[in-house]
Amino acid sequence: MSSMYHEGNRKLQDKFESRRIADRLEEKLTNTSFSDDDKTFIENSIYFFLASADAEGRSDCSFKGGSAGFVQVIGPDEIAWPDYDGNGMFKSLGNITVNPNVGLLFINLHGSPRRLRVNGSATVSADDPLLAKTVGAQLIVRVKAQAIFPNCPRYIPNLVLVEESVYAPKPNIEPVEPAWKNFDSLKDAVPPRWPAYKGSTD
User: How far from each other are the two terminal CA atoms of the chain, in whole angstroms?
Assistant: First the structure.
């Protein structure tokens, strides 16, 4: 595995005399495959943050949420999650189609604080086999991990989770529409929901 550091990182590491600890952290903590503990943490997460950039390097950061299990570890170094109905801008997914490099931050802001970063290469698919069994999915995003590493959680605030989002898709339950879709200034431009798997009727 090549180093995850570039010249910009190295210049600051040298300025602050942190190159040795940076190298040690990369050596001891960075992986290219998910551990069982990583898998448990990821698949129990109800949100994460996704960083992407377009072909010119203009960056974007997006919040992704759902019910526990909406992100799946589907291989030693691969994860997948559904794209749900959103605002139709497709900032993150549009970026991925022209620049597959992404960074994911899984973070637990309630209970025991924890952070896990996943950097890798993403794809977006409208005919992924997971679509046929993923409630509410209009597309599937897959990421092949190139670097998986934990972050110190010391600056994570101690928050309390009251409830998960009512908008997270649930099997055989009609989705709740957000209020903004009926705003006078927007409602004439809102497209219909894309057909999606609703859940097994067995």
Answer: 46
Q: How many CA atoms lie within 13 A of 147 on its CB side?
A: 20
Is 194 part of a structural domain of the chain? no
**Percentage of the chain lying above the pLDDT 90 cut:** 94
Whole-angstrom Cα distance, residue 66 to residue 169? Answer: 7
58 within a domain of the structure (yes/no):
yes
The chain-wide mean pLDDT, for the chain, equals 96
Question: Is 6 inside any structural domain?
Answer: no
3-state DSSP assignment of residue 66: coil
Question: What residues contact residue 100 under an 8 Å CB cut-off, 6+ apart?
Answer: 121, 122, 123
pLDDT score recorded for residue 195: 92
Of residues 189, 38, 45, the one with CA closest to residue 109: 45
Answer for the pair 97, 41: CB distance below 8 angstroms, yes or no. no
| Domain carrying residue 131 | 29-189
User: What total number of domains does the chain contain?
Assistant: 1
Please say whether the beta carbons of 45 and 68 come within 8 A.
yes
Pull the structure tokens for residue 181.
């879709």
Amino acid at 20: R
- Could you tell me if residue 59 is inside a domain? yes
Segment 74-91 shows an average pLDDT of 97
CATH number of the domain residue 162 falls in: 2.30.110.10
Query: Given CA atoms 137, 31, 42, 76 in this order, what sign does their dihedral have?
Result: positive
